[in-house]
Design goal:
Distance between the termini: 28 Å
Structural class: mainly alpha
Number of helices: 5
Order of helices and strands: HHHEEHEHE
Strand order of the largest sheet: 1-3
Largest sheet: 2 strands, antiparallel
Number of strands: 4
Length: about 140
């Protein structure tokens, strides 16, 4: 039953974020070391969530963009920087790694947003799903 549960979690995380399942495999190797002496259920669950969240952010924010660039993908802006007119419609898209595009598309999108926002009173353009960091044709919904 535990193997089925782990496979199901791996599958769901991979479908939603493309890399979440693989991070879950790393988590499965790490969390027993951190929770082996914990007897109470609530602190164990809390620590497990913290460990997975930490691993996920550690891999997705600084490391994943470097790996994705080898596949010809770059992330759209996550947070609005000074003089940028682009942001995600929801924090979900960058956290689920759905904000990757080709460098050419990113450059064109930033250029269009700057021109459009400069000519109108609109502060920024928002984006929804773009693409995952790897593999074309991966289902987004």
């Amino acid at each position: 039953m535990r193997l089925f549960k782990s496979f199901f979690i791996f599958l769901i995380l991979t479908l939603v974020t493309q890399v979440g399942g693989f991070i879950y495999l790393i988590y499965e190797m790490v969390h027993p070391m951190a929770t082996k002496n914990m007897k109470s259920m609530m602190p164990r669950v809390f620590v497990k969530v913290l460990i997975y969240g930490f691993l996920y952010l550690l891999i997705c924010i600084p490391i994943l963009p470097i790996i994705a660039s080898a596949f010809g993908r770059v992330p759209l802006p996550f947070l609005m920087e000074k003089n940028e007119h682009v942001k995600p419609a929801s924090i979900f898209y960058p956290l689920a790694n759905r904000h990757y595009v080709t460098p050419e598309l990113k450059e064109e999108f930033l250029k269009i947003s700057e021109e459009y926002c400069g000519k109108t009173d609109v502060e920024y353009l928002t984006y929804l799903d773009a693409n995952f960091p790897f593999l074309d044709g991966y289902p987004m919904h």
